[in-house]
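Exercise 3.2. Students should predict the tertiary structure of the chain below and write it as structure tokens, then compare their answer with the key that follows.

Predict this chain's 3D structure.
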Amino acid sequence: MTGSLDAGAGPHLAGLEGPLREALERSLADRLARCPGAELNLDNAFWGAPEPRDLGEALTRFGPSCVNVVARIFERIRDIDPTLGLWAQIRYLRNVWVGGSAGFKAVYAEPAAMRERLDGQLAGTGGRRMARDTILGGIEHQRGPLLGALAGSMGSLLRGGEPLDADSWREVHRPDEEAVHICVGKREPRLPELDDIHLDWRSPVVGVDEATRRCRYGLFISVVHWAQARFGLGNPVFPFQSIDDRVAALSGRVDAPARWADFVARWREARWALAVRGKGGAEEALRWLRACDEAAPAPGGGG
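Answer key:
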């Protein structure tokens, strides 16, 4: 998204949690200043457009769905570590995506410290637990095609060793529900594709093997999770994008009833405030989506 028919995200930046806004501001400022390592920061805002002048313009180009994903990830990391020590290890946010999973590529302040903090969340003291993936559980976050990564990891798998390219940790919360998944690359110099933080829409984790300190996975939900993450099968509804797409598709309808024009005006007023509210905003946006379906003109006209 490179523009907005409303005032955009700028007037709603105050709705972002302070540490999240600081990380976004830092990511943009250092990219604009051409700081080393910042060249991919907030990349969505730089695709096919002049450089954004400020954070409001950058997030407007992200669109509400991506802004909402970033806010939701911040909330989950805060619930895992209320001291925000984990969040403090995120130096920069890079490109954001929404699909079979949703998240952002990251630059960690100190990768070794990030690993230590993630391992420290195994006990869940003061927050939710995090546990390392097994080699198979983290196979999709190694370099190259899936089959190649699996073949390359077979020796380590049989020896009970470690992943080759990246370690990953999953939130241990509720199986088959939304959970955060954090990946930290092991290679130096660092490879941008290996460091990311994302939401799994349907977590495969059913518990922790206390002996190995690794995740335990449910067989059926692991298959469902893999099909969703890999192919987008059974993705959740993304209400911000769904409503915006409907509004765009019906923008030229001269026969649209007055209730539709009223809905569009109210949605444009509300959508950014909802986007910065994270999970709660997304749930409210689902109610807006139902209202959108009720207010939209019939496909054949006639209101």
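Discussion points: The first strand starts at residue 90 and ends at 98. DSSP finds ten helices and eight strands in the chain.
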